[in-house]
Amino acid sequence: MAQQFINIPGLKGPIGVALSVSVGVGRKERFEDFPDDETPMDSSLTVPTQFWDYLRGLPAGHADTLLSVQAMLYFPSLDGKGARDGKNMYQQHVRADFPFIFQNDEVRFLVTEKLLQGEPFNRAAQQRSPFRFIEGKAWLSATNDPRYVAVKTSMVLGSADVLVESWETTKEDATWKVGVSKESAAGIIDKIIKWIPKPTVERESGKTTDTRGGTRTVGDLAQKREWTMLLNLPEQKPKPESVIYNESYKHPVYFDTNKREVGNYHEPKNKMDQIKDLMRVMDAQILKYGAENITGIEVVGHASRLGDTEPNITLSEGRAKYVADLLKRLYKVKIPDENIKFRGEPVDEGNDKDNSWKDRVVWVTIKAVRKTPYPTR
User: Fewer Cβ atoms within 10 A, N terminus or C terminus of the chain?
Assistant: First the structure.
């Protein structure tokens, strides 16, 4: 991590700060230093697309799904007066971690603000040093561009103490006494001199004291600094277009000779109740595709070769309408007239006396669409 220096004027020394933001841990870690005054444009962390793809595949709570803000602090070997003292030098590592998850292919941070925390490597040196990591926090905020999130960090470094300087000056002056002296006279001349005053100057032992002083509070014992880094979020992968499959299921309903209703006529081969069997088939298709994806129902009535051609056409029509009405009543579905068809007896050559149960049938075709779902992660 690149180191930058925060000067603390009141303590007469700088604190080294190496600050970075990273995604992932260990060998897979991707990190970027926070910008400083020398590299103001180096202000974003861009994670390779392949690494985001790797993170998308991890479960929530994995160690790599972390955004970490870390700082290594280097405190100088100085005392409170700015003098060199090697015993006071120490380092401290502080960090804040922000776990995230992928939701609908977007990065979602579970928390957006945390304190920067960490213990000094040498507590004894910290106790002696006037330099401290006082407090710090990291937080995430949105930007005007949804592709970026701002990673912000704030720290207060220096000393929380208040330094007060006081001073006092004292000036002492001697006292001087000025006067005249008079002496006794012996003769005439002496009498004349007597009346002439003589000046005298004496230095007294007493002194006059003048004391002046004051106090001053020294500021700038701590510096608050803030850094901003932009994290380039991954672009959402385009959702794959749904693949639509048109599918259908065909089910037979058999009828007794010359009958237009099923009644109690069971399926000839398996001897099953045909109305119940039809309901089971419909229920299974609705469960498989969903009622909203059932796109249509078509019924086609048939008759055996027994009898004349035109009456068999009418008979097959009646059978088709019977099955269509039954489905409408049971499932409230719409079956338009063009989907109710009838064919009469088989048109290929055969014996007109043939009354096969395989020909006395209404084929029910249930049409549906199946869509491939979008990825949920």
Answer: C
Of residues 126, 118, 27, 123, the one with CA closest to residue 69: 118
Place of tokens 């922000």: 98
Regarding whether 176 and 120 lie in a shared domain, the answer is no
Q: Are residues 280 and 184 in the same domain?
A: no
Q: What's the predicted TM-score (pTM) here?
A: 0.53
Q: What are phi and psi of 128, to 5 degrees?
A: -80, -30
- CA dihedral sign, ordered 269, 275, 279, 285: positive
Identify the CA nearest to 20 among candidates 114, 95, 91: 95
Check the CA dihedral 79-83-87-91 and report its sign.
positive
Question: pLDDT tens digits for 190-247?
Answer: 555 555 556 655 555 555 566 665 655 556 688 888 888 888 888 777 666 777 889 9
Domain range enclosing 300: 244-371
d(CA 90, CA 76): 7
What CATH number is attached to the domain comprising 352?
A: 3.30.1330.60
